[in-house]
Structure formats: C-alpha cells, structure tokens
Amino acid sequence: xxxxxxxxxxxxxxxxRSMTLRCTQDMRHNAMYWYRQDLGLGLRLIHYxxxxxxxxxxxxxxxxxxxxANTDDFPLTLxxxxxxxxxxxxxxxxxxGQSIEAFFGQGTRLTVV
Amino acid sequence: QKEVEQNSGPLSVPEGAxxxxxxxxxxxxxxxxxxxxxxxxxxxxxxxxxxxNGDKEDGRFTAQLNKASQYVSLLIRxxxxxxxxxxxxxxxxGLDSGYALxxxxxxxxxxxx
Lengths: 113, 113
Hints:
heterodimer, A: mainly beta, B: mainly beta
C-alpha cells in the first residue's frame, strides 16, 4: 500500500518563483493536511481539508494556497516563494473526525534561495 | 503560547531501561492524544493514540493520560538503541481546525548500548 505520496522529495527554488508541492493518498481518507517543520519550531499546520471541495487555514497560511478537487489529491502552492518558506513540508491524511489518527507522507525538503 | 509542551531533551537512557517522555497541553476540551516517533530526516510515524484517562499498553509502549492534570506521557520499556529518535506529542485541535493535530516540539531520546 502506497499510503501518502509527496513529490518532489526535494527542491531548490529561486525566490519569486512559484511551485506546487504534490500530495496524493490512496487510503480514501476524508481529511488532509499540510504541515511545515522547522528547527526549533516543530510542526505547524498550514492548511487543511476536511473533505473534497473544502479547505481551511491553519496556523501559518500566508504565502500558501491549497485546493481539494477530489478525495485523493491535496496540492500546496507557493505563488511567489520567499527564503522564509525554506522548510520541510509534510502532507498528512486522516479518515476524519476527532479520534482518528493521522498518517504522514515522506516529506518535501524545499530550499528557497 | 505553545499549546503542547515537551522537554526538548536530549533524554539519555541505557539500553534495557525505561524511558519516560512527558507532555502537557493547555486546551481542556482536547479529547484525542497521540505519540509520534520521528527518526532524523524521516516523517513522523504514529506509535500510540489514547483517548481516555488511564493507561494504554501496546508492546513495549505505554501511553498514560490524565485529563484533569492535562498531562500525557509515553513509557518505553526495555529501551533499545533503535528507539533513539525524536518523540512528538500531538493533541487534536478540534472541529475549528479540521481536527488537525497540534504538535509539541518533540523530545529527543538517545538509548545508549
């Protein structure tokens, strides 16, 4: 079972350029999430989606946008990258609801120069 | 104010000993609590979930929850060098954040042979 697949694994991006981080899950989970992980700051929620067609803002949404056209895919777009967006990005999914565990993709390491 | 607090460590224990990892949270209405293990350069991996006061055991791992004290812990018995990792405590945010997880910054555990 593939679970959650993120692409690319790593990327170096010039400041000002745009980029979409891809996330696909094959578990038919309703909920999906994007987190960023930075040294000393831990994992922080960027955006979430409870179900296809709906999205919401997390703790650090500025500079990022998401869409949820279907159950399986939850891409994260940086419209105009800045160096402070250098981070490791994790996509996660959950069946949905409060008592259900979340599972993570392998992560995307993004460096904005 | 960070809502989930953990000692950053490192916590060093000898092989075969019990490792005790602690976490406090600020949101009294939280209902779901999770422990994730993260090896360096890897994604978080769910190892335990707990929803009710008391203890929950799974192999060498025991999660303990005390909602009155807003305290959750993880005990690792017979610690092995392969348990050396960062352990993340996570609390479910609730409906307003799509039931996303709020993470502590993690405790680094080192098990020495």
